[in-house]
Amino acid sequence: MTIIRQQDLIDSVADALQYISYYHPVDFIQAVKKAYDREESKAAKDAMAQILVNSRMCAMGHRPICQDTGIVTVFVRVGMNVQWQGDMSLTDMINQGVRQAYTHPDNVLRASILSDPDGARKNTGDNTPAVIHYEIVPGDKVSIDVAAKGGGSEAKSKFAMLNPSDSVVDWVLKMVPTMGAGWCPPGILGIGLGGTAEKAMLMAKESLLEHIDIAELQARGASNRNEELRLDLFDKVNALGIGAQGLGGLTTVLDIKVKDYPSHAANKAVAIIPNCAATRHVHFDLDGSGPAQLDPPNLDDWPEITLEADESVRRVNLNEVTQEDIATWKPGDTLLLSGKMLTGRDAAHKKMTDILATGEKLPVDLTDRFIYYVGPVDPVREEAVGPAGPTTATRMDKFTRTMLEETGLMGMIGKAERGQIGIDAIRDNQAVYLIAVGGAAYLVSKAITNAEVVAFPELGMEAIYEFEVKDMPVTVAVDTQGESVHRIGPQIWQAKIEEKTLNLV
Q1: Per the CB 3.0–4.6 Å rule, which of 190, 272, 289, 497 could disulfide with 207?
Q2: Assigned architecture for domain 314-489
Q3: C-alpha 485: how far from its chain's center?
């Protein structure tokens, strides 16, 4: 009989969440580096360079990889010979560990969890509760997987109940382009196949905890149907040309994982859940000897990459930029922004559009300004602001026309593609949309020299800030004519990959 102390579990969960906030799994870093080395698309290669540089900076500075520090997902396998020493339920212990991790004074993590999700949407303040899955197994230890799952990748989850004769490969290839770039590729696709609806989703999520080993599988070949699916899908998804951040390129996925389960004869449940460029998870065991010991990785595991601005990069002063200036920007152009910008995401946009609908003035003047879609992490020590990477811009599409036509807003900065209603509004108002790299939040924050809340402080991380930035790297995603790099880039690279494949045959 193994006795596990309550505080050991609490401390282990807290330590694990701190650990994964700033350490990528080493297999992920190695996979991104391999993809970076073979990438031929300049835009995609630059995006992966930022991801790798950001990851190393986070490992050194012990600050979050992404401003979205995730919803906590925990898989717990409890041995049947385990006894607990404590007065809390196992769920309460885990949530206490989450609470402890997210309020750590040396590395504050962003509280992103809202209770009453379809009503008041009140922030719980400490990222609790976690989503926990339990299994009782033989043995005398407790095995735990802890993951922090970003909202952008979660939002792109897909599920279908296929007919038994339908092709899983065809369905996945149909779904992936509809996922856009908001899940921050390059990443990993987890696929759950069979069981029931909820079982398929659970397997997709759990498969993402597995080691990246597609290169080894390619070398030895498939030995079962799951492995055949992985190899087939890996090649075909990458052949879509979506590329890093959806900019077009050779690598969209670093691996594809498949878990299956017997299913009813009438159905074929299939689920897809992606892991993004901020893949964060760790495994530990408790055997009664104390809290888990998580060894830090060696910094030599990270490549040393230098980000350099070449002669094609434009420097832009946001305090002086004009309509004539932005009209010259083209999709794919790289800019370095300096000056002042405002921030605002879903809740702030909702409040602003509600105020405009009443005919009242906004608390901030948006005339000829740029707004950055971000909910930053709180700062620590000498920071102006914590990690401050972009959030998925399509969520702001429904507000875009009102904002552009009623405020004098000139441009927006976010993550990934815009939907058609957003693009139409940008084109009709001769505005522009820029993207920062998702999964490079700490790197972005280093370009922010000052941050001040200027409106809606009650919204916490969703308040409107004014940032002052110096050489913040962005890419032109939608120009004043409504042309989108997320449409052009994948089209170009899908054709190039197809041509290369045909030439090899």
Answers
A1: 190
A2: Alpha-Beta Barrel (3.20)
A3: 20
